[in-house]
């Protein structure tokens, strides 16, 4: 019995020591009030004396008792707090983490979007100064004057003239052209509408020059060669007038410019899946003539995007490539023509991609990207973003507002929309796991027409719509019966005309174990034809 008692006492002491140690770890420093009490007691002991330090022991004992009471009270409060927090701590953590992640994403996106206009160090600054001087010298020395290639119809008509007459006149023409070129120096050379002469240009000129420097890792001579080759290529292919050409609409579904991102960059969508259709493929890429026309059309599209840039605040484009149903190896012409387009863009449009987002990425593409990765610079790789089908909307929303994203990609933008515009911004709510959320749209005036948009990212929820009259004696009207919304569902657009005051209620039932983000907007057109 004695042994058991001693063991019990020992275990109790160990538990007590462990509790004290845990408490000490939580509160390493004494509170200010306790420090003041110790000082006060020490002063009392010194004044009262005591041969054996009795006064000191008595004073400290009182403080120990008070501190023990305070500690017990704190431990009680802590225990009670922990009990309350245990029930909701996980949810609160998830909310905090999600908020922090969202803020980090937004900050990172803003930082990345403006990186192309920032000179990071003295080496880059020195390279820009040297490059400016070299370009200035080249323009004033007429090194960039290039004679454009004659157009095809002009060449054909000249070929019809007598060969002997041409031979006689060639010598005189060449001499006169040389005299004209020597006598006049054109220093008003522009690239994408921006003057290239640094002494007459401004910030926009530096932005353009920095594009060539970055494309060649700030190696001035290589950047200069790239600029000179680009100017020559543009002159030979009449690129300055390409926007005036009518290339038809046969290729419009393969790529298009649509809206801007959160930072104002134009957005270009590339849809490779349409080329998998045999009819479309034959119509666009089956012949060499059509392939050449497609390349020309694709260059015109990028020029349309560049035409929207000011080269001060915004100087690049956001590219989105949809890999859904991408043509397989059997359609080799697709690969060849896209390789040609990419090569032309890399050689003559440096640093015009602020970000390249690949969406609906199949598993095999990740393996392809991994093989390609060692051959890419870190700067290029940092611009790539990949999104699986289930993450398309969530990924695009990091960069683009929902009002600017087409409904086919989980946004709210519809073609020829007469009800909403991109200025009609959406609101957002979070639907917690295993819970139901409602969105209420007030309709206080009878005879109003209420129109709304709603999309839940990754849907997988049950959804229904009701009209609830203000009069409790009236019946609730089921506007849209409940149905299961799959992962591939687009945004919902609906409208309702009320015969009495009330409200539209949108009900989202999330039975899954993950939270959902819902985006919505609405308009109310009352009987007097005014919009709310």
Automatic annotation (TrEMBL):
Source species: Corchorus olitorius
Superkingdom as given in the UniProt entry: Eukaryota
Annotated Gene3D superfamilies: CRAL-TRIO lipid binding domain (3.40.525.10)
Domain GOLD: 422-526
Protein name in the entry: Cellular retinaldehyde binding/alpha-tocopherol transport
Any Gene Ontology biological process: cell division
Subcellular location: Cytoplasm; Membrane
Pfam family, one: GOLD_PATL1_C
Chief location: cytoplasm
